[in-house]
Design goal:
The structure is a homodimer of 219-residue chains.
Chain A (H helix, E strand, L loop, with lengths): L4 H5 L5 H25 L2 H8 L3 H7 L3 H16 L1 H7 L5 H18 L3 H11 L2 H9 L6 H16 L8 H17 L1 H7 L5 H23 L2
Helix pairs in contact in A: 2-3, 2-5, 2-8, 5-8, 6-7, 7-11, 7-13, 11-13
Chain B binds a DNA duplex (30 and 30 nucleotides) through helix 2 and helix 4.
Chain lengths: 219, 219
Amino acid sequence: MWLNYIVNTYSFMTEHEMNTEQKILDAAKDVFQQKGLTGARMQEIADKAGINKALLHYYYRTKDKLFEKVFEIAFSLFIPRVKEMMGSDRPIMEKIAFFVDNYLELLNKHPYIPGFIISELNRNPQILVNIIEKNIQIKQNRLIELLDDQIQKEVKAGIIKPISAKNLMTNVISLCIFPVVARPILQGIIFDNNKKEYDIFLKERKEFVKDYLINSIKA
Amino acid sequence: MWLNYIVNTYSFMTEHEMNTEQKILDAAKDVFQQKGLTGARMQEIADKAGINKALLHYYYRTKDKLFEKVFEIAFSLFIPRVKEMMGSDRPIMEKIAFFVDNYLELLNKHPYIPGFIISELNRNPQILVNIIEKNIQIKQNRLIELLDDQIQKEVKAGIIKPISAKNLMTNVISLCIFPVVARPILQGIIFDNNKKEYDIFLKERKEFVKDYLINSIKA
DNA sequence: CCTACCTTTGACCAATTGGTTAAACCAAAC
DNA sequence: GTTTGGTTTAACCAATTGGTCAAAGGTAGG
């Protein structure tokens, strides 16, 4: 089970219903992630969930509704986490170390979700607007402002070099996610398509990225 | 015209043919880029090219063949460029500055191509194998080895801090491409979906990334 | 047992989609 | 002006696909 989302949301359901719905979401997540909204087939999702196709439409009336749910779950697993991790009151350098550690672990557990989010969001940016409308606490402007206050204080205190919160956040996230999202290219071009070598590379990069980021801002 | 690829490849063609074929490739590029292989419709490509759908199949027998062509053109615009730019015999820091300048300019001209490549490659990594088979000079292992030699020399000479070529390349590429590829997310979450602000951010980031990368490796 | 309600299914449908074909078109060669 | 070759089109087709529906299955309460 990739997320006990449903368990929390619909705790009044019977065990049977929960299992079917969970099986559907699991299957849908796999298929949508690999083939995208337009490439996925309801029949394939039904097969993978071990149910009839009509039952799929019984639980989620349309393909779009099912997709929306899957996307929302994937999104809520990766994005709000940023806020949690960067919102504490520790020094910047500790925050970065903590973030890199945790985010790379999360990425290791769910390597296809960021690519899925990015792909589908590029295809239809409107999804994000809907999600943000539904889910107000996702807005992170305030986080960026607060983070920037903290950073500028630490800059003035001579702890770190001058940098904006937006640039720092972008750097941190880029260095964490891109090597996972662009794996086929980097593995193919730089690593001659050697999967094992790339796995090792990613594993070793965990410590590297942390040190690199911290050293790059240390005053 | 997004690329005079055809002109070079099929220079024996009449002007008329060239125009039709170019119109097809232009339209196909737009549609494939926005909707992906599975989301694109041959009818839409034909409409956008101002021709009949049957004519599309006259030039490119199948959707897959047309897609392959478009993908290959997009790919060859972005990937071999890395080799060109990193293959000179200048010092590492100059190479990085040159690369960032040129790549960010290229990205500004074709912001949707990297996302397109990454999306489709995640969906079907086999494409890359085919392209590399066809196009031997794309293999860049040798480049990485040479680059690593140069780096280790400069490290020993006390010019830059210790780093591997693979990590350095990954960092440079990540910091350049990710903010463009993940624009919908970053713009939505960090910039409250303010398109203009994000444009400014990307523009200002050009100098920032260059300085950041160089300072991060300077001994 | 039976009623009532939710779940599950097989059969079916209308619309879409990639692809084909035969005929029309058109420019250059003779 | 007619033949010849590639180019363009309208009409058509078979297969796929998201979605529906009526009926069957199953289960808890009376």
